[in-house]
Amino acid sequence: MLPSPVMASTTRIEADLLVPGRGEPVDEGTVVIEGETIAYAGPTRLAPDTPGAAVVRVPTVMPGMWETHAHFLGLRTANIEALATMSPHVGVLRAARSAERLLRAGFTSVREVGGYGTFLAQAVEEGTLEGPTIYAAGAFLSQTGGHADIHALGEGHVRDLFERHFGAHSLCDGPDDCRRQVRRQLRLGAKVIKVCASGGVMSQIDHPIHQQFSTEELAAIVEEAARADRVVAAHCHGKPGIMAALRAGVRTIEHGTFLDAEAVELMAETGAVLVGTRFIVEYLVEMGRARGMPAYAYEKIVAIADRHAEALRLAIEAGIPMALGTDIFVVDEVGRNGEELALLTRLGMSPLQAIEAATANGPLTVGPQAPRSGVLEAGYDADVIAVDGDPVADVSILADPERITHVWKNGRLVSP
To answer: Is the full-model pTM beyond 0.90?
Structure first.
């Protein structure tokens, strides 16, 4: 087990600027942490006396950030097919390093939507591994021939491959089989269920616009997850998949490339959250081929990139709740997750809205599993970060791990 830094019973963080996560910033603010909980957050002039507290003075204090679309896959190339020749032991070790890097970049919670996350979550919870709190999905569910199928391999090989890496395979067909695969992810300790409700970019044969899984299959997945108080995250590019997933009751739409006014209206009616993942679109367009991305995938990402930006602008204008997610799956890019905030501001968010997407809105993506997190308020979990600068004036500083000077997770100082 990792040695635990000495934690004072009370920590007092005094800041030039307090950014609460939701609501207006406070000049000259103070956060008081008692044990694992925030006891006070607000103006310094109203803060309680804290004799004997460990006092830290910082430029900005804000909630720890949430990454709500991560993959701990251990890949060093932008090609999912590389799993076929990668040892799962090496993959897990790489993924463990990714978890540590993500925490030190200011992300105290992560929703891991397909990969080694269920195993890493256990290691973090028991103190073996330093990392964010992980809400993992296990394997991402796919119909045969769907987005999480590796089309160049035999079907049996794909099933064996995912069993070997992630503890359960992805493929399921028909409502009963879909229920069984949800149960298999729950058996691994999944806190959220991930389903591929449309085709995608990184899969060879399917088209991003096409719906995957029938209405009955999607309903079975959502119903089975709900019985265990889990919500469903739906990978969706095309509108048919988006609409079917929303009608089935999914909690989040991932990517949302072909959102239009009708789909946005249905999102508003259902209360679904959009996780836009703009980072991965721009990254793959710019760097994908250099990082081993297959030609078929590169052609698809280039074809949808502008439409994806248009969809996110539409959702932002409509006020749809959005949470930060990057879809980073190449280990060498972990730590750049904060770049998503600046990308969201380019598409129409204010810096405060982007910070809210990265903090207060994070817990919305895990439904009944949600902690009291993402906001600096008395009674909330003491997941707190300090920033060397003013992220409201320049949100891009949250993309630089060197500017994250302190990270407290559950009240414990884990960085530096």
So the answer is: yes
